[in-house]
Design brief:
This protein has 408 residues and is α+β, with helices and mostly antiparallel strands. The protein folds into two domains: 180 residues, no CATH class; 171 residues, Alpha-Beta Complex (Peptide Deformylase). Strands 1, 2, 3, 4 and 7 form a five-stranded antiparallel sheet that branches. A five-stranded antiparallel sheet has the order 10-11-12-15-16, with helices on both faces. A two-stranded antiparallel sheet has the order 5-6. β3 and β4 form a beta hairpin. The protein is elongated.
């Protein structure tokens, strides 16, 4: 009897050890697969020779916790800020309550409004968080965990902090990494998952061949009527127009033969004496491609110029408040905070990557128009600023512009 009991206990103990080893092996394999995915493309966030610098906390099952799940119904889509100064649309999906080291904590898990439209990612859930290791043991910008709606069973879900990973921004500039919301700051050290990447950040390589040609729908707009006719400017008061205006646009093939025609018609549209503007973006005329026309007040003659696939790769912390309007938002002007200086990257018509620093009012115009390419409207910026704190450095500064001009 004692011998039988001993054998039973031995088998149970062996099974527990085997399960622990299997779990640790799976985590290690996941990390190895991630390393391969990060470096498999020359346009990826991490060169192959830097994979060896990825670092992780030891696997610790104490950081694998079971959470009580409260689903959030009827949540509205909101803009989650990203570290590049833009934002992505998300919905709050559920509240996760759990205990770690005998203390209660809470996190919110989110669902991407964009990924939800893709059948492959329809069940994907996003769990970004900050904790007391950020900026020391782990990346200062926080870490992410991937979950799925199917992980929620019987009102519970497992949060495995051993699977926490760094956003691409930890390795390279040029990515749109979401900033973990204030509600997802954990007042404890999460000594699990990926550690900080201590090598100097890379600059994201630009794949000039990755853009798309205009679609047939795009070409129908571009070629409708005469090339000297204005294009219709979409309005947020129309639901179909609003859907286009709030959609993220795609990069454009720099040598698409229809670019000059669209540039010409966008210029005619923005210079309409009845509704003069200082900038216009392709989504405003119904085309979700990354092309803008901007008036360069910082150049002699204040010319209008077009920009293919413009990206703002750096923004100054110093911001200025100025009044803005929009061709797509009728009868409305409000004060918006914008970075005083930016660094712009774009592709010219020869396929060369151009970068330049721009400041002042022209920088404001670029920020406004590039926002359009990400489906961001200036009221979104106002709403975002209301959730943050800003400290004035001096008395109010004012910009001036000609009367009856719709600003940027």
């Amino acid at each position: 009897m004692k011998y039988t009991l001993f054998i039973g206990l031995f088998l149970i103990t062996s099974s527990i050890k085997a399960n622990a080893q299997d779990y640790q092996t799976r985590i290690v394999q996941d990390r190895q697969e991630k390393a391969i995915s990060l470096s498999k493309s020359k346009f990826g966030p991490l060169p192959a020779d830097q994979v060896k610098f990825l670092d992780y906390f030891p696997v610790d099952k104490a950081y694998r916790v079971t959470a009580d799940v409260t689903l959030l119904l009827g949540e509205e889509t909101f803009k989650m800020p990203t570290y590049d100064g833009t934002s992505n649309p998300y919905k709050r999906y559920a509240i996760l309550n759990f205990t770690l080291n005998n203390k209660p904590y809470q996190l919110t898990v989110y669902q991407s409004a964009a990924l939800f439209q893709n059948p492959q990612y329809k069940n994907h859930l996003f769990l970004p968080f900050l904790d007391l290791t950020n900026g020391q043991e782990s990346y200062s910008g926080g870490r992410y965990i991937d979950l799925a709606t199917t992980d929620i069973i019987g009102g519970k879900a497992t949060i495995d902090f051993n699977a926490a990973y760094n956003p691409y921004c930890a390795y390279s500039n040029g990515y749109r990494c979401p900033v973990p919301p204030q509600e997802n700051i954990l007042e404890t050290k999460i000594m699990a998952g990926e550690k900080a990447f201590h090598k100097q950040k890379n600059e994201r390589p630009v794949d000039i061949q990755a853009g798309q040609n205009f679609s047939q729908e795009d070409l129908a707009i571009i070629n409708q009527g005469s090339q000297t006719d204005q294009l219709r400017v979409l309005q947020i008061t129309d639901q179909k127009d609003l859907s286009i205006l709030t959609t993220t646009s795609s990069d454009l093939k720099y040598n698409d033969p229809s670019i000059p025609i669209l540039e010409k018609r966008m210029l005619i549209t923005v210079q309409d004496p009845a509704h003069a503007g200082v900038g216009i973006a392709a989504p405003q005329v119904g085309i979700n491609k990354n092309l803008i026309v901007v008036q360069r007040f910082d150049k002699e003659g204040e010319p209008f110029e077009s920009y293919i696939n413009p990206k703002i790769i750096w923004r100054s912390k110093f911001t200025r408040k100025g009044v803005e309007g929009c061709l797509s938002i009728p009868d409305r002007r409000e004060e918006v905070l914008r970075s005083y200086t930016i660094r712009l990257q774009h592709i010219n018509k020869d396929g060369k990557i151009i970068e330049e620093n721009i400041e002042g009012f022209t920088a404001v115009i670029f920020q406004h128009e590039v926002d359009h390419l990400y489906g961001i409207l200036y009221p979104d910026r106002i709403e975002q600023a209301e959730k943050e704190e800003f400290e004035p450095l001096s008395d109010k500064m004012e910009f001036y512009i000609k009367p009856n001009t719709i600003r940027p």
